[in-house]
Specification:
Helix content: over 70%
GO cellular component, one term: membrane
Pfam family, one: Sugar_tr
Subcellular location: Membrane
Radius of gyration: 22 Å
Structural class: mainly alpha
Domain Major facilitator superfamily (MFS) profile: 1-396
Membrane topology: Multi-pass membrane protein
Largest sheet: none
């Protein structure tokens, strides 16, 4: 993108560049569901890793004599755009296939905890990146992004494929072998194998045959009455997660601290450390809104920076242990296996589309009203609480088949 030729202002440049990643993620969300259904969960993760590696390399090798990525951005470096798009594709693909894979391999008593742990690891990785980014160059930071991708690629050789996916494609022997490997060689898997059959109350082979006879799901099929509730829950949670402002805050956290008068490097490091704990999305937005309100009206100027940083830290901590994890946990549980690829892809697409919308509009909203922006985010998060209380069911302690049968009855 050649921003200067396009006549874009600096804020527009960074809004557009910041949102490129979410474009890639939307493409990943659309395509990875059918890919994971066709070639398996493990190969889908390999493809996701490959895109991330390619993206980080493109960013690393972007040509510029200057050490600043922002100067390179202003010059319109195509390599940066391609790299950000490719890493976005990998992130979008991972955000669907990893929670699904975890939900399909985990025992029912550990499923929610392990899927939540995935979100904790994401937050931890982001935290480490924020901290490392304050002490190394952006090129070195891009190169370091390849390390976790390499670990994933190697680690996939050590774990079995999803037993439920193997059952779906009719590989009965591989299904039993994978389930046995996951539970341990001395563990009796007969009861769990039977629970997988309960969804249709038939023998395993009949279950496999039935799944194979089901027509391949299309997007329009998701709006049939029997699937409508699960789709509403899955998509609704993704909208609630992203529309509350998380990507606007994450992408521009440094500028938020600077605008509020707080040292940006110190604020970024504290922000990174707090990602793995705390509570209160609405409270965090309201504290930040009050901070900007005081600054705009020149009231209690000494308190404004402290309120801003407190609000952001409370917000991101709450997100990490709540809305950051819950939508992905629920999405991995509620869709029947014959529509899981299409429905999960739709939910992930909506997630990344809203992420793009929020990250792109953040600067415009802040120009309109700094405190109004966070009041808006707070109101949306309050509505999200109502949606969760009224619509989202409890899934703890139930098998995937029991959850899906109850929701889609």
């Amino acid at each position: 993108m050649k921003f200067e030729e396009d006549g874009l202002e600096p804020g527009e440049k960074y809004s557009l560049f910041g949102s490129i990643l979410t474009f890639g993620a939307m493409i990943g969300a659309i395509t990875i569901g059918p890919i994971a259904d066709f070639i398996g969960r493990k190969w889908a993760m390999r493809i996701s890793s490959a895109f991330c590696v390619a993206g980080w390399l493109a960013i690393y090798f972007a040509e510029t004599p200057d050490k600043s990525v922002f100067v390179l951005l202003q010059k319109g470096a195509l390599a940066l755009d391609i790299g950000r798009l490719a890493t976005g594709y990998g992130m979008g693909a991972f955000s669907y296939v990893v929670p699904v894979f975890i939900a399909e391999i985990a025992p029912k008593n550990l499923r929610g905890g392990l899927t939540t742990l995935n979100q904790v690891m994401i937050c931890t990785g982001v935290s480490v990146s924020f901290i490392i980014g304050t002490v190394i160059t952006w090129r070195a930071l891009a190169l370091s992004g390849i390390i976790p991708c390499a670990i994933v690629l190697l680690g996939l050789f050590l774990i079995p494929e999803s037993p439920r996916w193997l059952a779906k494609v009719g590989k009965e022997k591989e299904f039993e072998s994978a389930l046995q490997k996951l539970r341990g060689k001395d563990f009796d898997i007969s009861q769990e194998a039977a629970e997988i059959q309960v969804y249709c109350v038939i023998t395993l082979q009949d279950y496999i045959d039935t799944l194979q006879r089901l027509p391949k799901a299309k997007v329009l099929d998701l709006f049939q009455r029997r699937y409508l509730r699960s789709v509403t829950i899955g998509v609704g949670l993704m909208v609630c997660q992203q529309l509350g402002g998380i990507n606007g805050i994450c992408f521009y956290v440094t500028s938020i601290f600077e605008a509020a008068g707080f040292p940006s490097n110190l604020g970024t490091i504290i922000y990174a450390c707090i990602q793995v704990s705390a509570s209160g999305l609405v409270l965090g937005c309201m504290l930040t809104a009050i901070s900007f309100f005081l600054k705009v009206h020149e009231l209690a100027l000494e308190a404004s920076p402290i309120l801003a940083v407190t609000g952001i830290l409370v917000y991101i901590g709450s997100f990490s242990i709540g809305m950051g994890a819950v939508p992905w946990v629920v999405m991995s549980e509620i869709f029947p296996i014959n529509i899981k690829g299409v429905a999960g892809g739709l939910a992930t697409l909506v997630n990344w589309f809203i992420a793009w919308l929020v990250s792109y509009t953040y600067n415009y909203l802040m120009s309109w009203s700094s405190y109004g922006t966070f009041i808006l985010y707070g109101a949306i998060n309050a509505l999200a609480i109502v949606f969760i209380v009224k619509v989202v069911p409890e899934t703890k302690g139930r098998t995937l088949e029991e959850i899906q049968a109850a929701i889609n009855a």
